[in-house]
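Hi, here's the filled form for the chain we discussed.

Project: internal
Contact: R.S.
Residues: 306
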Amino acid sequence: MNRFAITLLCCAALAACGSKTSDTGTGDNAARPIGGGGGLNPAPPADDDTGDRNGATAEDLVRVGGDVILMTYDPETDTLNVQGDPFDFIGDFTRDQGSDLPGFAAYVSPDSNVDVPGDASARQYLAFVGIDSENAVSAAVVATGVRLGTEFGGTYVGRDSIPDLPVNTQMTHRGSYAGLLTRGSSVTRTRGRTELYLDFYDDRNGDIEGFIDRVDVETGVRTGERIVLVITDIDEFGSFEGSAVGVLDGLDDRDGLDIRESQGTYTGLIAGDHAAATGGTLVLELDDPSLPRVIERGAFLARRVD
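And the returned structure, exactly as it came back:
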């Protein structure tokens, strides 16, 4: 494992700092952490060089959430490797073009071994990865359905460097969203659009807010109401984290309700010249102990439009 990967794990305060990383391929084709500039296969930063500004950490370049510790990609075999618990036991994810969503490539874990209770490989995982190569930022999400009372999933957003942020300006970013909605044993794909509003006036901290509208891919029906990304600060490195509020489909219609308001979080990184792009992820969960677990994880990429 290279020093950057170790720093990433420790800064993210996640377990398994000793987990292996993929070393498939050599030279420019070696599997590396997903980032932005080289598509899914950028060069990792050298040792402690985390960007253009003093005080930045590895977490300011890559943010992971849930069960994900690291994602790597091997361009020679077009496979994705997801590190974390229990992903280390799954093997390489392979392309599933039939499940692609606008702006995001789909990958699936190896065929499940459903006859072995408790075996992590018995769970079928789906992942979406999106990259904005021009602005050196990428975002990804992975999830599986509930099996034996548990489900796993996580998110990833990364960029190649810390951008110089603009001052005394406001802007709008628009882009695409890919989500995985876990409802019991099933995982439903959701797709949609993201709109973000950024404020960089120097009389206060930078701020960001926005929304995501999405639909159920299988049915084409709008999935609840829009997810609101509540206004939050942008720090000096172009990183942000805030609250997300929306609704998720319930699993029954008790009391005549088939949707319930849910709370969650979103996180992201600004990238490119003068805040030209944004990559981010969100997690939204239905907080109702009377229902099976309902959780949506998603990733988004957006570019400045004004």
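Let me know if anything looks off before we file it.
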